[in-house]
Amino acid sequence: MVMVSGYTRVGGVHPESAAFKNVLHSQGVSLSEAMIFGIAGGLGMGYILWEFQEHHAKVLVVAFQNRWNYPMDYYQHLADRLGVTISMPDTGSKKAAAQILNDALDRGLPVIAWVDRASLPYMQMPLSMIAHIGHIISICGRDGDTYFVDDLAAQPIPIDANTLADARARISSYKSRLVIIDKLSPSFDLPAAIHAGLQDQVEYLSSPSESFSLPAIRKWAKTMIDAKGKKGWLKVFEDRRGLMSTLMSLFESVELSGAPGGLRGLYADFLTEAASVIGNSRLSESADHYRKLAGAWSQLAESALPDDVPLLREMKALLRQRDHITKRGGEAWRESANLTAQITEKRREGNLNSPLDDAAVLALFMTLHDQLNAIYQAEVEALEALKAAL
Questions:
Q1: How many H-runs (helices) and E-runs (strands) does the chain carry?
Q2: Tell me, what's the pLDDT at 186?
Q3: What would the pLDDT profile of 75-131 be if each residue is shown by its tens digit?
């Protein structure tokens, strides 16, 4: 393994924050992932239900990060607050993209990269999802035509040059984009950066937007028991086709895809750390609200694949087991080929022949509806507590 000199910290919780934390650490600046996350603006909210009729699948995407739909802004604001100069080169040419990447690595600079999640072999996603879901990784080493990817695992994951090039180019709007840290500030004002991040989140989550802020949770709750609206779950899943994929993606989005507890626990860690740095003990009280919210979001994910339905209980266990193996990093993901085969078959069967009858579907949707409404109210209370603390 040929790593960029100084790249000794890998893994993390949240892709965008972990990647920046580890790249920054390799250049001599040591901040926790929670601190990076909070300074960048912390929490957001997003909800999309995608329907793929040709695959009998409906896939739920839930986002929990500030500016989740504008990752370039997320990184630029973070860099500005830390006094870091970054560049974000992109290109529509695979050859040029590879040259930009190699030049950075040859200069001893690890990079952050935009990629297509389903094009990464270790993610073991259905081929039908290629070019649909973006992802952030860091690239921290190279040995000939093999690159080493840092992606929330305990050690870097090797990936061949062609596969990496495809993953970078697959989503055309990403244009093989990178984040490169060009220059560090000799000193930066950490309390000021914390204050900026706190204020950013308060303003962002105070927005009335039903697409990018807290009202998205309330809107989602309403769709759970809507039988008439085009995106109402009782309408979309009237024949129960594709419900399995959606319940799986709800569980994975909250618990396994870089957002455990809806990132509320990570934000609570930031508030606890920030309270000490800026001398505001009320932030620790606000952190308690977000720790409780982390538990509520995790309970929602658990409820999506209820244990009293054997197929759904088995699927949840398989997803967890595969994720545990992948998080070991390296080539460990190859050990889970049998798990992936089981997941693929059970997902296909569950999408075509749901294990839930109409009454069970209604009961499940009512449970999720009630939990989402409770989460929305708790989110509003947490935000008000944070405003008061500031």
A1: 14, 8
A2: 80
A3: 999 999 999 999 999 999 999 999 999 999 999 999 999 999 999 999 999 888 899
- Paired tokens of 335: 């050990």
Rounded CA separation 45/69 (Å): 10
Distance, C-alpha 5 to centroid of its chain: 27
pLDDT tens-digit series, residues 165-198: 999 999 999 999 999 999 998 888 999 999 999 9
Cβ atoms 288, 386 nearer than 8 A: no
User: Is the separation of the CB atoms in 383 and 225 below 8 Å?
Assistant: no
Residues 258 and 61: beta-carbon distance below 8 Å:
no
92: tokens are 């529509």
What is the Cα–Cα distance from 192 to 1, expressed in whole angstroms?
Answer: 39
**Mean local confidence (pLDDT), 274-298:** 97
Full-model pTM: 0.95
- Give the closest residue to 194 by CA, choosing from 186, 205, 202: 202
Structure tokens at 198: 């706190």
223-226 long-range Cβ contacts below 8 angstroms, 24+ apart: 223/49, 224/365, 224/366, 224/368, 224/369, 224/372, 225/365, 225/366, 225/369
> 275 near 287, Cβ under 8 Å?
yes
Mean pLDDT of the chain: 95
DSSP codes, 354-376: -SS-HHHHHHHHHHHHHHHHHHH
- pLDDT score at 55: 58
d(CA 102, CA 322) in angstroms, rounded, equals 32
How many residues are recorded in the chain?
390
Return the closest-CA partner of residue 71 out of 344, 258, 225, 216.
Answer: 258
H or E segment and range at residue 15: helix 15-26
CA pair distance 347, 57, nearest whole angstrom: 9
Cβ contacts of 284-290, under 8 Å, gap ≥ 24: 285/385, 285/389, 286/382, 286/385, 286/386, 286/389, 289/378, 289/381, 289/382, 289/385, 289/386, 290/264, 290/265, 290/382
Between CA 347 and CA 251 the distance in angstroms is: 14
Residues pairing with 66 in the sheet:
none
